Amino acid sequence: MKNLSRRSFLKSTSAATVGAMIIPNLLSFSPNNRLNFAVIGVGGRGHANWGKVPGENIVAMCDVDDKRAARGYKSFPKAKKYKDFRKMFDEMSNQIDAVIISTPDHTHFAATMAAMQLGKHVYVEKPLAHNIWELRTLKKAAKHYGIISQMGNQGHTTNGIRLIKEWYDADILGQVREVHAWQGNKVTFKPGGYFTKPESFPPPAHKVPKHFDWDLWLGSAANRPFNTAYAPKSWRGFYDFGNGMLGDWACHTLDGPFWSLDLGMPQTVEGIVPNPIPDYSFMPAESVVKYEFAARGDKAPVTLTWHEDGTKPEIRKDWGIDELPESGMVMIGEKKTLITGGRPNNPKLIVSDEEWNEFLKNAPEKTIKRIGEEKPVEEWLNSIKNNTLPGSNFDYAASLTEMALIGVMAQRFATKLDYDAKNMKVTNRPDLDAYIKEPVRKGWSYGEDLW
Question: What is the pTM of this model?
């Protein structure tokens, strides 16, 4: 029964039969069609996510930081509070239908696998996981356990990303052989920011705040002294915990070309980094990452270049524009060039105002179902209740994130990688296998049985 979704089960079974059978994870389904949610990661992005399910029951909340979680705890005084999600599942698995996970990248996998093994539907912040083996395992697990999954890259629910794919499919752009994306001037390295740089490497030991459980925050990562540059929110720049700017933004900015061009995995990725951190532990202040994708059926090979803090693509004379936005993406086609901002919400063709207005009057047919602007949590909730899959389910989301993370690896080590996606191997750098499947601390191992 663990592979049968609860919605399918309830559609085919009477209430009396459900009451007579011992299927604990199904018994919590409320008669009024409300779901019981557990929240792992209550503050920050957690608040943004659990705030999207006001009509459901939040029965459990888990966070290692009492201070950042305080607002959520106050909002749901009846929800049971935990620091360790493993204990939460031990005590409350029979009372939980679905789980929202909004923790640092390095703890996504363990929390998600623990939930799925119990048959719980899962929503996970982007990027989906911290390494490629974890991504492949989550993809397998979502199918194996028969759950409804979603990654929280908001742009995948928008009208904008659907327009990108529809315009490409309608041959408005023609063959696309070149894509550029960029994030400029976002790495300030200021204390308390998303990318706080420590005073030295390795960071010195700081006193752990009383409201914060450092050991649980580390999760599967190797033990080390606490430093305020790691937590509560500046972990993204440290490759042991986050995936830098590329890992943070690729699931937004590269979602449009990945989906519409059916890019799949690159053959090679090169990280061009002027000043890498000597021990490769922290993101560089400036870099360019160049992906090479092979032809896919009748789709041309693609060179995708990611520019980070310091460079942008060269403006072509035929574009007729003077400057590019602070962050964005361009798909350069043989017929037309498409541009977006850092998210895929509002695509435009780079043409004159007159030509743009004429295009809008006769735009291609809208063939893809619309969800609503930036509503990934709502789409996931709807999918659970209607036994469907949302657009950024793990089968799609794991592949999008894998494409990003192989680029992160090239950026981290300032090198060129030949990637054998089928076998999850960097063929020219076998020493990097340890980063495709990272070691984990005792007590945090999940998913091995699926291989």
Answer: 0.92
